[in-house]
Amino acid sequence: MINRRTFLRGTAAVTTAVAASAALAACGDDTTDDPAGASAADVDAALAAGGTIVVWAWEPTLQQVVTAFQARYPKVTVNLVNAGTSNDQYQALQNAISAGSGVPDLAQIEYFALPQFALGESLTDLTAFGADALDATFTPGPWASVRTGGGLFGLPMDSGPMALFYNKRVFDKHGITVPATWDEYLAAAAKLHAADPTAYITNDIGDAGFTTSMIWQAGGTPFTVDGTTVTIDLADAGSTRFVALWQQLISQELLAPVGSWSDGWYKGLADGSIATLVIGAWMPANLESGVAAASGDWRVAPMPQWTAGGSATSENGGSSLAIPKAGTNNALAYGFMTFATVGEGAQIRVDNGAFPATNDQLTSDAFIGRQLEYFGGQKVNESPCAEHAAMA
Q: How far apart are the C-alpha atoms of 136 and 282, rounded to whole Å?
């Protein structure tokens, strides 16, 4: 479990990413001179001619997208490879790029990690494909997240406005009310663990991304950028507010000491020993695929508030699809990318639990009113999450 020292170490990784973004901004257009683009006609011709592309991604709904894509373009083969989740994949991708072999044609890259690959001139600038014309297609937050240093280095797959996912079966068993504030969340954590010492309100072993998202909701701005100057203030009001609360959970041993996305984490979510997640709204697809045994147990509620009656949320995660420069079939890769993010595949992903990054999908009645069987038929998208994503 984390303490204040671990918290500081975790946020150092975020600082590095912020500094990299600032440095990239100072590079002007040096990373955008990639001529390896193709016209719409070239992409259509490549799809008709066929071939094979390799896609590295861990996002579960992409398998259905691949099936639909290959049915639409039968001469194209898509090899979907799970090379690891998040940092594990990024390490593998960096190794392949450095070795000059084994680089995929497409890679899932989260918004926070995109600048580091762009800074290393490892990604194709999609303006060479005319992708900048998609400006009005995506919601502002995800669209801004794929643009850096004057270039466009990915197309958004989803968005990550945060919500509270909770195990209703566990809450009902122990008489726990869904917490509306963080003070209530702390009280619920203590009540749950007292009733069942094997159960915890959530897990935590020091996730820097979660930490910065929580500070954001608390109104903190620990990292500020002015040109190429990055200022760090981990003692600002929002950072202090979050740490003061979370340290109580740590000190009282109310957090499960398992890492997110580990086997122990999935087991805890399935058997109820991890009772909540405060995480991005892209989580439903991951629960449906990775925690199928708990179908019907889970529900979604607004993120707890620092002040009673508040309505602040935050952002956590979200991913793009990007084309590594060392890929060998850019036209086919771009064809699959657009199919998965703005074409038929985008709807397939949303229908299977992904949270949309496009304006049309986010505001559609079908999305807002959709009942998810996994969540007991709840209309999980009728929440402040969608409103936040539209405004981000």
A: 22
**Fold annotation for 31-159+318-357:** D-Maltodextrin-Binding Protein; domain 2 (3.40.190)
- CATH architecture under which domain 160-316+372-391 falls: 3-Layer(aba) Sandwich (3.40)
Q: CA–CA distance from 229 to each of 31, 219, 389 (Å)?
A: 20, 21, 29
Tell me the pLDDT tens digit for each residue of 366-391. 999 999 999 999 999 885 454 444 43
Give pLDDT tens digits for 225-236. Answer: 898 899 999 999
SS3 state at 56: strand
Task: Please report where in the chains the tokens 């969540």 appear, as a residue.
Answer: 375
The CB-side HSE value for 171 (13 A sphere, CA atoms) comes to 19
At 212, give phi and psi (nearest 5°): -65, -35
Task: Tokens for 166, please give them.
Answer: 């909770």
Question: How distant, in Å, are the alpha carbons of 126, 200, 274, 344 from that of 358?
Answer: 18, 36, 32, 13
pTM of the model: 0.79
